[in-house]
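anyone else get weird line breaks when pasting these?? whatever heres mine. first is seq + tokens for prot A
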Amino acid sequence: MDIYEDYKDSGVSWLGEVPEHWPLQPGLAIMYENKSKNTGMVRNSVLSLSYGKIRVKDESELPGLVPESFETYQLVDPGDLIFRPTDLQNDKTSLRSSISEFEGIITNAYLNFRFKDGAVPKYYHYFFRAIDNNKLIYGLGSGLRQNISFEDFKRFPFPVPPLQEQQSIADFLDEKTAKIDQAIAIKEKEIQLLKERRQILIQELVTGKKVWDGSAWTAPAETKDSGVDWIGEIPKHWEVRKLKYLTRKIGSGITPNGGALNYLDNGVPLLRSQNVHFTGIDWEKVAYISPDIHRQMSNSQVQYGDVLLNITGGSIGRCAVNFLQSEANVNQHVCIVRPNNAISPIFLNLLLSSELGQGQIWYYQQGGGREGLNFQNLKNFIFTYPPRNEQLEISRLFDIIDTENDKAISIKMKEIEKLKEYKTVLINDVVTGKLRVHAGSGKQLTKDLLYS
């Protein structure tokens, strides 16, 4: 890939210079708004814009809607560009547009752009993606919720390369973005495998399937029946107990009277379910309460070494050890599990986060629509554990392995971010003419992306 021979000033600050032979035209010259309705139910495939792609909705996703509801929907043809114009003020992260590969219908909450002769829809799909990535649309909206209409695009400047160039650019970006997405998918799979390996290791350690002999992990020399079918054999010197015999406290907090109105910018941290993660406690997004309210909530004051467990909602089961020496409290969605001297906090956290603990959480959770775990069931969780000195050694060795695992995951995540950034820059530079597309461009790049 190289650049074009001659450029001109586009007169548009964000576009900068464009190839000399590319005219700029207003949106109304290349597209129009399609408002054709599904009168008479001529189509029944309902489409949706999700994560920057158009997909066909499954029937199970259409609860409560009757066929008559779809008569007001818009007709969508392959090549139409669907744009979500609403709520610009509150949502500045979602991808808002995509070209449709399907024939179907979509709610009239979306804009439907259809391109005229002389415009290759897929090229303008990528140009709209560049507009989206550069956050240009957020200066266009109007109204309280910052909505966009076709009026905002009628005078918006669009480059119009020759038709064959538009097609070449679209074909090039189809190929290259697919290869980048493939490379991202490979790295995401590698991250998933690292996480699965971590869970397998935790399960083996907390059930005694692997023990440390001083130089390597090995199977225990002597075992005994745990007396629990789903645990099986454990090392001979290990014990089996219910959680209530391993703890001094199991209980959650409350939401202060007045709820979020009592939250302060500073004060005593009030930990909520969004703060508790398997990787630790997120102290950046905590709410704060006054010392007076903290004293009133004496039953849910957090101590150093407490294990915090989410007991409601979609994050049920997430747990972490509190290593904060200063004061903190929890609300009703977070349970304090305070270990006694028989078990170390880190080993207890490993037990709760293992398949052994998570399986019991899944089994006992109550609440139907909103999952929940009650204290009585939690107290009756069954766990295996070694002597405390062995717990500490297992925790120490696991921490070394887990740190290396976290580093590997972090590297993969950074690589994914680099690929996403490169994809954004590539789309922007190609559709605005900063880079010129030639046949075979980027083949070495593709190889590097896949095998790096």
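and prot B, same format (seq, then tokens)
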Amino acid sequence: MAVNKVKKVFGCSECGTEFPRWQGQCSGCKAWNSISELRVSSSPQVTRNDKLSGFSGMLESKIRKLSEIEIEELPRLDSSFDELNRVLGGGFVAGSAVLIGGNPGAGKSTLLLQVACNLSLNETILYVTGEESLQQVAMRADRLNLPKKKLNILSETSINKICDISNQLRPKLIIIDSIQVMYLDDLTSSPGSISQVRESASALTQYAKKNNVIIIMVGHVTKDGSIAGPKVLEHCIDASIMLDISDDSRFRILRSHKNRFGAINELGIFAMTEKGMKEVRNPSAIFLTNKNNNTEGSVISVLWEGTRSLLIELQALVDTSASSIPKRISVGLDQNRLNLMIAILHKHGNIQIYDQDVYVNVVGGVKVSETSIDLCLILALVSSLKNKSLPENLVVFGEVGLGGEIRPVSYGQERVREAFKHGFDIAMMPKANLQKNKPDGLKIIYVDKIEDALSKLIDIIS
């Protein structure tokens, strides 16, 4: 009997590039300490399973004119959660592959078990567990009081066997928990290795396209918060969403990082309860519930996340530094953005805080990436430095340029309406975001320069 030869190669977990020997830095993506050893079979008899070949449901490829392609409306499956539907762009799309990641204990398995049990009442659903026993899953379903009578559950880690069973069952949706423990029989490397994770995800994606089945894969995350495994894992799937734990451990933030069928950076808020995940339909009220009145350095702003507006509280603390190198600490906000605003405040506002420790925090664990927070950040810094609190009914938003100009932001009218709905009747915003239909009872302070904003700030707090 011929023995398959096994050779050693080294692969990058970030980009998947392979090398004949180990090296500290990947020459492909320039990442450090991302290369690990792989064992692959060199036998020419090892081939891909024919059942997993092809892509997008087409086994025979041929050239066609783009105008010949028939455009059909994508049918969507309601996930039974409006917040999850929002993040997905309206629900699950038939034939799509979705990757959901998150830290241990975030609630990935709980959320998907709730989705599976709810959908199983009207659809054929297959829940595949590779990490937990069937008894553990059943105990969780009992604890959450979920309808489990019609849910099909399977304990298996072989992709080949899962596909064979699915061909007999013909489910509408398959949940794989998790992709890191799955393996292909054709590969000799162990489950969880770079090659196994990459090929297993690719095989499941191809199966979803060919059979018009929705496949949801659970992914582990590394210590820096990214999906464990090769970077190509996120390229082959259709949607990638992350479930994060907020500073208040009761709440979970679901955010889309990639979505071929909807908007990216869409946000969904859940609360973890004794009965599982519950939707938070008004997240702005949640983030503002514990706001203390008349607090120096606290300012309210309005973000635009995907297709919804979101009110958040930004806190700043400016204190005299006891060190020759002042601290600059930012939580939930890009620290480089903080340094830019400090320099602009010095240059164009004539306010010096170079000898002060600066701490900035976005309440509720929300991570802010858009620039509309700039003006709010500057006012929070000045409020803390001067020990003057701002009115509790004031909301601020606007982008600040390096020249001290205040630039307009998108969806200005929608932001103002959201703030006014929550009782904020004073708004400071860019002059270029002039409101045509201002709500009755709303006072708007238009500014176009940092100097103008600071002078009007003095009028407000005096």
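btw re prot B: Residues 194-211 form the longest helix (18 residues). The longest strand covers residues 308-320.
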